[in-house]
Amino acid sequence: MRRLATLCALLLGATALAPATTAVAAPTPIQVYGAWHCSNDACTWSAVRTVAEFDSQNHWLIDRGNGQPSVNLVVLSFVNPLRLLNQTTDAGDLNGVPRGMTSDIVNYFTSHGVRVMLSIGGITYTDDWTTALNQNGTLLGQRAAAVATQLGVGIEIDYEANTGANLTGLQNFVTAYRAVHPYNAAGTDPTARLTIDLAAGDRWLIDIGRKATADWLRTDTPVLDFANAMVPSKQPSTSSAEANWQEHLDGKAQYSPPIPPLAPAKFTGSLYVAEGSRVHAECNNFAASLQNTTSSWVQTAAPNGAGSTAGLLGYMFWAAEKPSTRGVTTAPPNTCEGGMGVAASTFNIPIPLPALRQS
Questions:
Q1: What CATH number is associated with residue 39?
Q2: Which of 188, 201, 289, 309 is placed for a possible disulfide with 247 were both Cys, Cβ 3.0 to 4.6 Å?
Q3: CA–CA separation, 95 vs 87, rounded Å?
């Protein structure tokens, strides 16, 4: 009887064992945590600003409340590509560069360990991108490289042509830029940082997304540093944001020709910080924010045909200060220490930007 009781106990114990669990990847630290910046004039940057005045409206970006920046990257938005090609000098531009994008403003950020880039394009300048590439994509790339040298900044390609994009001209632009500033995996040369904006998922900017993913964002032969999956038409939900970003990881095999999968280490996800009449929780309430609810996914998203490491590079936010003429700003009293500042501490964002994951 004792043997029978022992056997029964062993059998009962076996049935009580917990089922096997699937291992979950350890979170990969966020590396890129940045904001597009629109100055105080809805992204034209047409006026020169003093450092003191600029700081009064943007101090939260370089000080989250403990003397540390809230971001490690700022992208000044936007440069008009056609004016850059033509070296236009007028009321708002000097040799094709908006007058407000000065070395003083760049140094305001870089002196605090924040990397700076200039974004060429935006939805307003889509036709000008096409015209400039039709005229001379190589020269445009050379002039972008010269501005990068002059200011000590990187360059972002924001060419939002959903149809009819001049991909040959864009290839010429990239080739010309890289001839001056070669790819720098160590991240030690700010002027070598060359990125591109893609759609939130793979169902818009399809031709540009296919070209960038297949030819420029590979882990074996990288040409561009990374892509930003742009914000959708409005602030997404947690599930829709993750679904959009998953499309980049999966690619679109059913398209003809297909879009290949993108490595997690080759792109960031983007969210609104201020939009229309709303200042979002991304700005002022980290606990209620999408960066909080999506951060587990962002840091563990697995490769699905490209790359070998899990986790996106990080987040970008649209947009600091005044992104539209009638909308809210992130200037006082709507500053973002309580959202992005808290997130920077929570995620232990590296300042300055480290060498980025390459695979």
A1: 3.20.20.80
A2: 201
A3: 4
Q: Is residue 354 one of the residues assigned to a domain?
A: no
How does pLDDT run across 341-356, given as a tens digit for each residue?
Answer: 999 999 999 999 999 9
What is the extent of the structural domain holding 271? 27-346
| AA letter at 187 | G
At 107-157, the pLDDT tens digits run: 999 999 999 999 999 999 999 999 999 999 999 999 999 999 999 999 999
Task: Enter the tokens of residue 142.
Answer: 């050379």
Sorted by sequence, the CB contacts under 8 Å of residue 232 that are 6+ apart come out as 200, 240, 244
Distance CA 336, CA 187 (A): 27
Residue 49 lies in a domain: yes
Q: Which of 108, 201, 189 is nearest to 153 (CA)?
A: 189
Neighbours of 89 (CB within 10 A): 13
Task: Report how many domains make up the chain.
Answer: 1
Give the contacts of 217 (CB within 8 A, at least 6 positions apart).
196, 223, 224, 226, 227, 262, 263, 266, 267
In this prediction, the residues of the chain whose per-residue pLDDT falls under 50 are 1-22
Half-sphere exposure of 137 (CA within 13 A, CB side): 18
Please tell me the predicted confidence (pLDDT) of residue 86: 98
Q: Does a structural domain hold residue 359?
A: no
Distance in angstroms (rounded) separating the CA atoms of residues 174 and 195? 10
Residue at 14 is within a domain: no
* Two structure tokens written together for 11: 């059998």
